[in-house]
Design a protein that fits this description.
By secondary structure, the protein is mostly helical. It is built from eleven helices and no strands. Helix 7 packs antiparallel against helix 9. The radius of gyration is 19 Å and the shape is elongated. 31% of the residues are buried.
Length: 232
C-alpha cells in the first residue's frame, strides 16, 4: 500500500523554504514569548498569577483562532472576552503576530516527551501515535484551515502556519536526529524531508482527507521508511 502524499509534502516544504528565506532577509522575524523569556534568562520564574493569566489568554486565543480565524487573535478581542487588561497582554506579547505564534505553539506542543528506546521502528511508532493522539484531542484541522488562506498573503500568518507544521514534525525529528547521532541512520540523511514523509501523510489524512489515522497507515509509513533507510 503506497501512502506517500508528495503534493502535501511539496506544499509544506515550499512554505517552510519561503519563510526561511524571508527570515534570512529579516522580513518576518518573530519570536514567541517563551523564546523571549529564554533569551532574558527568566524562564521558569513567572509568578503563579502570571502563569494563570498567560493560560487564560492563550486558551481564549485558541478558541478565537478556531472559530474566527487568525485575524481575530488580538489583544483587544481577548481582553473583551476574558477581562484581562490589554496592557497586561501587551506586556507579554508586544504585537499580534507574537501572540498568534504562542497560541499556535500551545496547540501543537507535545503533552510530554516520548520515550526514546534506541529501537528505530518502535521509536517512530511512538512519535507517530503520539502525533495522532494530539491531533485527535486538539483543533488541528480547524486551526490549519484558519491559517491557510491568510498564510498565502501575510508573513505573520505564514510563520504561524510554519510553527504549526514544525510542531507536528518535532517528535519525529527528535527520533531521527537521535538515530543519526547514534550512527543507526546515515549522517547525510535529510532529516527535514524524512520528517515530512513520515508525519506529513498523517496531517494530510486528518486535515485534508478528514479521515481517521489508522494503525495500518502508521505501520505502512514506518515500513516504507525503514525499507529505504535500513538501520546500520
Amino acid at each position: 500500500m503506497d501512502v506517500a502524499i508528495p503534493q502535501f509534502e511539496n506544499i509544506v516544504s515550499l512554505k517552510i523554504h519561503v519563510v526561511a528565506e524571508r527570515r534570512q532577509r529579516g522580513d518576518c522575524h518573530r519570536v514567541s514569548a517563551a523564546e523571549r523569556m529564554t533569551k532574558r534568562g527568566d524562564k521558569g520564574r513567572e509568578s503563579p498569577r502570571t502563569q494563570r493569566v498567560r493560560e487564560i489568554v492563550l486558551a481564549e486565543g485558541v478558541r478565537l483562532l478556531g472559530s474566527h480565524g487568525g485575524a481575530a487573535v488580538t489583544a483587544l478581542r481577548i481582553s473583551e472576552r476574558t477581562g484581562v487588561a490589554r496592557s497586561t497582554i501587551y506586556r507579554h506579547w508586544p504585537d499580534q503576530p507574537a501572540l498568534l505564534l504562542d497560541v499556535v505553539e500551545r496547540i501543537v506542543r507535545p503533552d510530554g516527551t516520548i520515550e526514546i528506546t534506541g529501537e528505530l521502528q518502535r521509536d517512530l511508532r511512538s512519535a507517530l501515535t503520539s502525533l495522532r493522539a494530539r491531533m485527535n484531542r486538539r483543533p488541528f484541522r480547524v486551526v490549519f484551515a484558519a491559517l491557510l488562506t491568510q498564510a498565502n498573503s501575510d508573513d505573520a500568518f505564514a510563520q504561524a502556519q510554519q510553527r504549526l507544521v514544525q510542531g507536528v514534525l518535532a517528535p519525529t525529528r527528535e527520533v531521527l536526529e537521535g538515530a543519526v547521532a547514534q550512527q543507526r541512520l546515515p549522517a547525510d540523511l535529510d532529516v527535514a524531508s524524512a520528517c515530512l514523509r513520515l508525519a506529513g501523510p498523517l496531517l494530510a489524512q486528518h486535515v485534508m482527507v478528514r479521515a481517521p489515522i489508522t494503525d495500518a497507515l502508521v505501520e505502512d509509513l514506518i515500513r516504507q521508511f525503514v525499507d529505504l533507510h535500513p538501520e546500520a
